[in-house]
Amino acid sequence: MDEVKEIHRFTFKDESTVFSIAPFEVYDMKPGILPGNYRIPKCTDAKYPSRLVVSKGIHIMYVGGRKTPIKIDTPSFQIAKAIVDDCISSQMWCTPGVENPGLIWFQGDVSEEDFLIKNKNFYDDLIERQRRWFLRICKETDNEWGRYKNHRVVSDTARFASRALGLDPEWMASDEVYGFNKCPACSTMNDKSNVICSNCKLIFDSEAYKKLTFAGGVK
Q1: Calpha distance 106→167 (Å, rounded)
Q2: Average per-residue pLDDT in the chain?
Q3: 107 CB-near residues (< 8 Å, 6+ apart)
Q4: Tens digits of per-residue pLDDT, 42-101?
Q5: What's the whole-model pTM score?
Q6: What pLDDT score was predicted for residue 179?
Protein backbone atom coordinates (compact mmCIF):
# COMPACT_ATOMS: atom_id res chain seq x y z
CA MET A 1 0.00 0.00 0.00
CA ASP A 2 2.81 2.40 0.82
CA GLU A 3 4.40 1.67 -2.56
CA VAL A 4 1.10 2.47 -4.32
CA LYS A 5 0.84 5.80 -2.48
CA GLU A 6 4.42 6.64 -3.38
CA ILE A 7 3.85 5.89 -7.08
CA HIS A 8 0.65 7.99 -7.08
CA ARG A 9 2.45 10.89 -5.43
CA PHE A 10 5.01 11.06 -8.23
CA THR A 11 2.69 10.30 -11.17
CA PHE A 12 -0.18 12.66 -10.33
CA LYS A 13 -0.05 15.83 -12.39
CA ASP A 14 -2.07 18.83 -11.29
CA GLU A 15 -3.40 20.31 -14.55
CA SER A 16 -6.53 22.07 -15.74
CA THR A 17 -7.63 23.14 -19.21
CA VAL A 18 -9.14 26.40 -20.42
CA PHE A 19 -11.00 26.55 -23.74
CA SER A 20 -11.88 29.76 -25.53
CA ILE A 21 -14.10 30.56 -28.50
CA ALA A 22 -13.78 34.28 -27.76
CA PRO A 23 -12.81 36.52 -30.71
CA PHE A 24 -9.90 38.09 -28.86
CA GLU A 25 -6.66 36.99 -27.25
CA VAL A 26 -6.83 36.36 -23.52
CA TYR A 27 -3.74 37.53 -21.67
CA ASP A 28 -3.82 37.26 -17.90
CA MET A 29 -1.16 38.08 -15.32
CA LYS A 30 -1.27 36.63 -11.81
CA PRO A 31 1.26 38.67 -9.80
CA GLY A 32 3.14 36.70 -7.19
CA ILE A 33 2.43 33.32 -8.81
CA LEU A 34 4.96 31.48 -10.94
CA PRO A 35 4.81 31.25 -13.92
CA GLY A 36 2.21 34.03 -13.61
CA ASN A 37 1.59 34.82 -17.29
CA TYR A 38 -1.19 33.04 -19.19
CA ARG A 39 -2.03 33.57 -22.86
CA ILE A 40 -4.83 32.05 -24.95
CA PRO A 41 -4.88 32.89 -28.68
CA LYS A 42 -8.02 34.48 -30.08
CA CYS A 43 -10.49 32.12 -31.74
CA THR A 44 -11.66 32.97 -35.25
CA ASP A 45 -13.82 29.86 -35.71
CA ALA A 46 -15.79 28.30 -32.85
CA LYS A 47 -15.34 24.88 -34.46
CA TYR A 48 -11.67 25.11 -33.49
CA PRO A 49 -11.52 26.48 -29.93
CA SER A 50 -8.28 27.80 -28.51
CA ARG A 51 -6.87 25.69 -25.68
CA LEU A 52 -4.54 26.31 -22.74
CA VAL A 53 -3.36 23.68 -20.26
CA VAL A 54 -2.58 25.23 -16.86
CA SER A 55 -0.31 23.64 -14.26
CA LYS A 56 -0.30 24.42 -10.57
CA GLY A 57 1.28 27.72 -9.59
CA ILE A 58 3.84 28.44 -6.91
CA HIS A 59 4.35 31.56 -4.86
CA ILE A 60 7.08 32.34 -2.38
CA MET A 61 6.33 33.53 1.14
CA TYR A 62 8.51 34.55 4.07
CA VAL A 63 7.02 33.39 7.37
CA GLY A 64 7.91 34.27 10.94
CA GLY A 65 11.15 36.05 10.17
CA ARG A 66 12.69 32.98 8.57
CA LYS A 67 15.54 33.69 6.19
CA THR A 68 14.51 30.84 3.95
CA PRO A 69 11.15 31.33 2.20
CA ILE A 70 8.55 28.61 1.88
CA LYS A 71 6.83 27.57 -1.34
CA ILE A 72 3.05 27.52 -1.42
CA ASP A 73 1.16 25.73 -4.19
CA THR A 74 -1.89 27.18 -5.93
CA PRO A 75 -3.95 24.35 -7.50
CA SER A 76 -4.36 24.50 -11.26
CA PHE A 77 -8.15 24.61 -11.07
CA GLN A 78 -8.02 27.82 -9.01
CA ILE A 79 -5.81 29.45 -11.64
CA ALA A 80 -7.97 28.21 -14.54
CA LYS A 81 -11.14 29.44 -12.84
CA ALA A 82 -9.54 32.83 -12.13
CA ILE A 83 -8.46 33.22 -15.78
CA VAL A 84 -12.03 32.59 -16.98
CA ASP A 85 -13.74 34.68 -14.29
CA ASP A 86 -11.35 37.63 -14.66
CA CYS A 87 -11.73 37.70 -18.43
CA ILE A 88 -15.53 37.57 -18.34
CA SER A 89 -15.82 40.21 -15.60
CA SER A 90 -13.60 42.59 -17.59
CA GLN A 91 -15.90 42.64 -20.64
CA MET A 92 -18.69 45.12 -21.27
CA TRP A 93 -22.35 44.18 -21.62
CA CYS A 94 -22.12 40.63 -20.35
CA THR A 95 -23.97 38.68 -17.69
CA PRO A 96 -21.88 35.71 -16.48
CA GLY A 97 -23.62 32.41 -17.17
CA VAL A 98 -26.20 34.03 -19.45
CA GLU A 99 -24.51 36.21 -22.08
CA ASN A 100 -20.74 36.28 -21.92
CA PRO A 101 -17.52 35.54 -23.85
CA GLY A 102 -17.01 31.87 -24.66
CA LEU A 103 -14.55 30.68 -22.03
CA ILE A 104 -14.77 27.56 -19.89
CA TRP A 105 -12.41 25.49 -17.77
CA PHE A 106 -12.11 21.82 -16.81
CA GLN A 107 -9.95 19.96 -14.33
CA GLY A 108 -7.37 17.76 -16.02
CA ASP A 109 -5.70 17.82 -19.42
CA VAL A 110 -8.79 17.79 -21.65
CA SER A 111 -8.24 17.40 -25.39
CA GLU A 112 -10.08 19.43 -28.00
CA GLU A 113 -11.84 16.25 -29.16
CA ASP A 114 -13.06 15.46 -25.65
CA PHE A 115 -14.37 19.00 -25.28
CA LEU A 116 -16.24 19.02 -28.59
CA ILE A 117 -17.62 15.48 -28.37
CA LYS A 118 -17.66 14.10 -24.82
CA ASN A 119 -18.54 17.49 -23.30
CA LYS A 120 -20.78 18.62 -26.17
CA ASN A 121 -23.45 19.92 -23.78
CA PHE A 122 -20.94 22.37 -22.29
CA TYR A 123 -19.73 23.34 -25.78
CA ASP A 124 -23.26 23.97 -27.06
CA ASP A 125 -24.08 26.05 -24.00
CA LEU A 126 -20.89 28.09 -24.51
CA ILE A 127 -21.85 28.76 -28.14
CA GLU A 128 -25.31 29.95 -27.10
CA ARG A 129 -24.05 32.20 -24.28
CA GLN A 130 -21.55 33.86 -26.61
CA ARG A 131 -24.25 34.27 -29.29
CA ARG A 132 -26.47 36.09 -26.78
CA TRP A 133 -23.49 38.24 -25.80
CA PHE A 134 -22.84 39.10 -29.45
CA LEU A 135 -26.49 40.17 -29.82
CA ARG A 136 -26.19 42.37 -26.75
CA ILE A 137 -22.97 43.93 -28.07
CA CYS A 138 -24.58 44.73 -31.43
CA LYS A 139 -27.67 46.25 -29.80
CA GLU A 140 -25.62 48.41 -27.46
CA THR A 141 -23.30 49.46 -30.30
CA ASP A 142 -26.36 50.39 -32.39
CA ASN A 143 -27.53 52.63 -29.54
CA GLU A 144 -24.11 54.26 -29.11
CA TRP A 145 -23.70 54.76 -32.86
CA GLY A 146 -27.14 56.33 -33.10
CA ARG A 147 -26.22 58.82 -30.40
CA TYR A 148 -22.72 59.82 -31.42
CA LYS A 149 -22.03 58.59 -34.98
CA ASN A 150 -18.43 58.22 -33.83
CA HIS A 151 -16.08 55.40 -34.86
CA ARG A 152 -14.72 55.21 -31.32
CA VAL A 153 -17.89 53.53 -30.07
CA VAL A 154 -17.30 50.58 -32.42
CA SER A 155 -15.01 47.92 -30.94
CA ASP A 156 -13.23 45.10 -32.74
CA THR A 157 -15.40 42.68 -30.78
CA ALA A 158 -18.54 44.44 -32.05
CA ARG A 159 -17.33 44.01 -35.63
CA PHE A 160 -16.58 40.33 -35.03
CA ALA A 161 -19.99 39.87 -33.37
CA SER A 162 -21.76 41.51 -36.29
CA ARG A 163 -20.01 39.28 -38.82
CA ALA A 164 -20.66 36.16 -36.70
CA LEU A 165 -24.38 36.98 -36.60
CA GLY A 166 -24.54 37.82 -40.30
CA LEU A 167 -25.45 41.46 -39.68
CA ASP A 168 -24.37 44.49 -41.66
CA PRO A 169 -25.10 47.63 -39.61
CA GLU A 170 -24.05 51.10 -40.68
CA TRP A 171 -21.25 51.25 -38.13
CA MET A 172 -19.46 48.26 -39.68
CA ALA A 173 -17.96 50.62 -42.28
CA SER A 174 -16.70 53.11 -39.69
CA ASP A 175 -13.10 51.90 -39.85
CA GLU A 176 -13.07 52.47 -43.61
CA VAL A 177 -14.60 55.94 -43.26
CA TYR A 178 -12.28 57.19 -40.56
CA GLY A 179 -9.16 55.31 -41.59
CA PHE A 180 -7.61 52.85 -39.17
CA ASN A 181 -4.32 51.02 -39.28
CA LYS A 182 -4.51 47.22 -39.31
CA CYS A 183 -1.94 45.51 -37.10
CA PRO A 184 0.25 43.24 -39.29
CA ALA A 185 0.59 40.74 -36.44
CA CYS A 186 -3.01 40.20 -35.25
CA SER A 187 -5.13 42.23 -37.76
CA THR A 188 -6.69 44.39 -35.05
CA MET A 189 -7.81 47.80 -36.32
CA ASN A 190 -5.91 50.53 -34.43
CA ASP A 191 -6.31 54.29 -34.30
CA LYS A 192 -3.63 55.93 -36.42
CA SER A 193 -2.27 57.65 -33.30
CA ASN A 194 -1.53 54.33 -31.57
CA VAL A 195 2.15 53.69 -30.89
CA ILE A 196 1.50 50.03 -29.98
CA CYS A 197 -1.27 47.64 -30.96
CA SER A 198 -4.22 47.76 -28.55
CA ASN A 199 -4.51 43.98 -28.70
CA CYS A 200 -1.17 42.20 -29.14
CA LYS A 201 1.11 45.14 -28.09
CA LEU A 202 3.16 45.09 -31.29
CA ILE A 203 5.22 48.29 -31.49
CA PHE A 204 4.27 50.37 -34.55
CA ASP A 205 6.66 53.28 -33.99
CA SER A 206 9.84 52.28 -32.12
CA GLU A 207 11.14 55.85 -31.85
CA ALA A 208 7.90 57.16 -30.36
CA TYR A 209 7.75 54.14 -28.03
CA LYS A 210 11.22 54.96 -26.61
CA LYS A 211 9.99 58.41 -25.61
CA LEU A 212 7.02 57.09 -23.62
CA THR A 213 7.18 56.92 -19.82
CA PHE A 214 5.25 54.16 -18.06
CA ALA A 215 4.24 53.88 -14.42
CA GLY A 216 7.00 52.27 -12.39
CA GLY A 217 9.41 52.70 -15.28
CA VAL A 218 8.29 49.38 -16.78
CA LYS A 219 7.48 49.07 -20.50
Answers
A1: 33
A2: 88
A3: 16, 76, 77, 80
A4: 999 999 999 999 999 998 888 877 778 888 999 999 999 999 999 999 999 999 999 999
A5: 0.73
A6: 58
* Maximum Cα–Cα distance across the chain: 72
Please give the sequence-ordered ranges of beta strands (E in DSSP) within the chain, or none if there are none.
15-20, 26-29, 37-40, 50-55, 57-61, 70-74, 103-107, 181-182, 189-190
Residue 105 lies in a domain: yes
- Give the SS3 label for residue 157: helix
**7 falls within a domain:** no
Q: How many domains does the chain have?
A: 1
Within a domain: 193: yes
The helix/strand/coil state of 19 is strand
Q: How do strand 37-40 and strand 26-29 relate by DSSP bridges?
A: antiparallel
Instruction: Note whether residue 101 is domain-resident.
Output: yes
